[in-house]
Specification:
heterodimer; A: alpha/beta; about 15% strand; globular; B: alpha+beta; Alpha-Beta Plaits; 4 strands
């Protein structure tokens, strides 16, 4: 199974399709789970520590807003671990909880900059586009090695 | 899916099927008589428990309608004070807007997965061209001269 990084990092569709084709999705949900079950920050309302923006310094400079560095503390290690990536652009949801435009740009830049296979698509909004979307993802995932030890 | 140090996992099961309802998925899980926590929601169910047990139960649910039931992991367990609406004064929980947006696309994905399974060949998709600036200017001018 190949570890496939996804963008948007908490996409249901991408996460499901990657598991469906027998690979491992590297998604924000897993990173958040590890984060919130760590002893010391499992007491609400905290789910992030002052250490996180410091960890983010590996991926973004010190003058970059703490919000970007805090997010990169979670996303950065996923990109480091990735063996392939799927980027789906043009998502309306980028304005929501995922809506940090600078983090999104940096995430996409670091993914493209890494020497791994990357598939770039846009969200489908019609049956034809949906078919194209699923077929391209399936073709990409089937081209990835399945016997890699994860 | 990544294995977590604490050995537990929470999975969201989203149902976009014409034949299966969220209650059917919940009943399938109740029927398995396994000691896990489930929460029924408007879009499906949330299942929390030991990783291997959750994966097994979720796989049984997905098999009810494989191409129209979708699964993803969730970071927070159901009812967590940091996310649960009960303690936050109502309103959608953070992250729900994104999920709702993707749920709107699931029928398209489900249909495409059916086609993929039936080896339906892919036809060339013609992407609509973006509006040229000159055309936009013409539209604006024609509206202004009305």
């Amino acid at each position: 199974m190949t570890k496939v990084f996804i963008y948007p990092t908490n996409s249901l569709i991408l996460s499901d399709l990657i598991e469906r084709f027998d690979h491992t999705p590297l998604a924000m949900m897993g990173a958040v789970h590890d984060k919130i079950t760590t002893i010391g920050i499992d007491s609400p309302p905290l789910n992030i520590t002052p250490e996180d923006p410091k960890h983010g310094l590996k991926y973004a400079a010190v003058e970059v807003p703490a919000g970007v560095r805090g997010r990169m503390a979670l996303i950065g290690p996923l990109i480091d671990e990735a063996e392939a990536a799927i980027i789906v652009d043009d998502a309306a949801i980028s304005f929501g909880c995922m809506g940090c435009a600078r983090t999104n740009e940096l995430t996409k830049f670091l993914t493209r900059d890494k020497d791994i296979p990357v598939l770039e698509l846009v969200y489908p909004y019609s049956d034809e586009e949906g078919k194209d979307f699923v077929y391209k993802i399936s073709e990409f995932l089937e081209s990835l090695p399945k016997d890699v030890k994860s | 899916m990544a294995v977590h140090e604490d050995g537990t996992i929470t999975k969201l099961v989203v149902i976009s099927s014409d034949s299966i309802l969220p209650i059917d998925a919940a009943l399938e899980i109740y029927g398995s008589e396994i000691d896990i926590t489930i929460k029924e929601t408007c879009f499906g169910t949330m299942v929390t428990g030991p990783e291997d047990v959750v994966n097994k139960v979720v796989s049984n649910v997905v098999n009810l309608d494989r191409n129209h039931i979708f699964v993803k992991e969730r970071g927070f367990p159901p009812g967590d004070d940091r996310r649960c609406r009960a303690g936050r004064g109502g309103g959608p929980r953070p992250g729900f807007h994104f999920l709702r947006n993707e749920i709107g696309i699931l029928p398209i994905i489900g249909k495409a997965l059916d086609d993929y399974e039936n080896n339906v060949p892919l036809e060339k998709v013609v992407q609509p061209e973006k509006l040229k600036v000159s055309q936009l200017k013409d539209i604006i001018e024609s509206e202004l001269t009305r």
